Amino acid sequence: MFEKLRKLLKNQRGLTLVELLAVVVILGIISAIAVPSIGGLINNSKKDAHIGNAQTMVNAVKLMATAEELTFSDDKATVTLGTLVTDNYLDKIKDPSGNGYDEKNTVVTVVKKSDNTYDYSVKLISTNDVPYLDGDPFTIKRNNVKLKK
After folding, report:
1. What pLDDT is stored for residue 77 in this prediction?
2. Would you say the pTM of this structure is higher than 0.70?
3. Domain-by-domain residue ranges, the chain?
């Protein structure tokens, strides 16, 4: 009985070169498909984070309006990101692209309409002068957000 077991263990072979080559080729094909997909997912996540930051800024400006600290001129008000942070309506927000937002040129524009409702628009600009988005962050689509190439 032990003889048969010993012979059986001796007859086992490893992978042949062709089998090993087939495994390497399959792994190469899988990685060629997966790597671009992952890159697209990362960019889409950054774009979604920019939209989320813009929505947060609008909500902070709505708080300002509720507290009656929003100054209109010709039914229009503009609030910079720096003002929102300085006046403690917003903590400093992180730019998902890693550049940082330009606190003077990143602005929320509020337009008061005739029926006493408001339209909000956000212009997100990086410290490298990359304009990420410009428009209503609650209706803007991911493909309208620009990332630096």
Report:
1. 93
2. yes
3. 2-144
